[in-house]
Amino acid sequence: MAIIRVSQDELVQRDAAISEIREYYSSLCLSKGRKMTYSVRTYGCQLNESDSEKLCGMLEQMGLVSAPEDEASDVTVFNTCAIRENAEDRLFGNLGMVKADKKEDKDRIIAVCGCMTKIPENVDRIKKSFPYVDLVFDPQQLHLFPVYLRDVLRNRKQLVNISAVDYIVDDSLVPVFRKRKFRALVPIMYGCNNFCTYCIVPYARGRERSRDMSDILRELDELACAGYKEVMLLGQNVNSYKSSDGKTFTDLLGEASKIKGFNRIRFMSSHPKDISERIVDLIASSSNIETHLHLPLQSGSDEVLKRMNRPYSRQDFLKTADYFRKMVPEGSISTDIIVGFPGETEEDFRRTLEIVEQVRFDSAFTFQYSARPGTKAASMPDQIPHEVVTERFARLLELQNEYAYRSNLAKVGRTEEVLIEGASSTAPDILTGRTLSNHLVNFTIPEDLKDGSKSSDDYEGLLCDVLIESARPYSVDGKMVRLK
């Protein structure tokens, strides 16, 4: 696939389309006697969340406002994920549910974008079973969304535009609507060259392409000046970043850590083959880089790793994990593990459990293998029976949950700095946030520290010290002792 840098002419076309759509919705607003609304429904990873912020930014420029939750909107965008089969099932179920909204108001627009659109079977299904979907486009063409939406509004017929081009665009030239006060998502590279045999990402997101380091640092400077306390550097394989001038991820991370204003610098997602001791040393020596390393294992068996096309061994993985534990003793390690990959024997699975016991992951994202059409693994022999996968998965969860609980239990009695993310979704009088090591903290504010003029939302993005009093399997509980 060709990789093409977005031209200024394309951005001029985009801005012209935004102006035309704004005028169109302004007239609709007058005729309907209400504001025109949008909703962006996001599935999948942080990169999809970042893409959704850009979609929202462009929709805001078009003059639309965010629709109240669970209300029908005038423009609905489904930003999809293709990693797991259940994400696809959710999309098609939700597409069926908005059919009535479209029937009620023919002016409503329904769009589908994201990784699922790069799978031809999904696009064919949308065309055949969901003809009321107005627009389908792929993630590489996100910056052209206003142009496609304008064409749909002009022609009033379904538009499907899936490109074979991998675009690279300076993200600072795309409007972004950030809903979170505490964290800014900043993609530094797109795509993946690894072609793990179970993964659809290289086909959906294209080949690796990195933004210029100067553009990223300029954006980070602007975010720090705007008051953001935390920034998350994103990429499908973030530590394979390489700028056009040869600068590496380590160079970028080091420069980012020097920017005044950031209390937390995080990055996702890493690949074990690209994590160097230099990166770990930088984490250990910097006060504002998160003391958390996400290191996806996937399997503890060398034979399974080979079939997965994961170019590292269990010993390579353990060496990196051991070095991190040595250099960042207060830090945490999280991982991804797939259970039931084709051909996985009981001995292979036992080798995975051994690494879980050795590393003692602080948290883990665990998955039962899901065959994805178009990947090599989907056609491999020796697919594992569902009941075997389920039984192994239960054993893994039991073991990992114990180590996650121990990690949280070790925090009890300590006072930790927490970046407040807002009110708990289950209890509005409880605030939630994370430590520098990425431990999730739920906490109360004692009466003598409460500010009667502040609501729970007003605390979002602030830093505080929390005394941790008890532990749960997935979080810790405490009370604020000082607001910073």
- Please, what is the average pLDDT? 94
Helix content: 25-40%
CATH architecture of the largest domain: 3-Layer(aba) Sandwich
CATH superfamily descriptor of the largest domain: Methylthiotransferase, N-terminal domain
Distance between the termini: 50 Å
Portion in strands = 15-25%
- Tally the beta strands: 21
Shape, per Cα inertia axes:
globular
Q: How many separate domains make up the residues?
A: 4
And the CATH topology of the largest domain?
Rossmann fold
Descriptors for this entry?
484 residues, alpha/beta, Rossmann fold, Transcription Regulator spoIIAA, 6-stranded parallel β-sheet, 5-stranded mixed β-barrel, 14 helices, globular
Outline the structure in words.
By secondary structure, this protein is an alpha/beta fold. It has helices spanning 8-32, 46-61, 85-97, 99-104, 120-129, 145-155, 201-205, 213-225, 249-257, 277-285, 302-308, 314-327, 346-359, 386-409, and strands at residues 2-5, 37-42, 65-66, 75-80, 109-114, 135-137, 159-161, 165-168, 183-187, 189-190, 209-210, 230-234, 264-268, 292-294, 332-339, 363-368, 415-423, 431-434, 440-444, 463-471, 476-483. The strands form 6 sheets. A 6-stranded parallel beta sheet has the order 3-2-4-5-6-7, sandwiched between helices. It has a 5-stranded mixed barrel with strand order 17-18-19-21-20. Strands 9-12-13 form a 3-stranded parallel beta sheet, with helices on both faces.
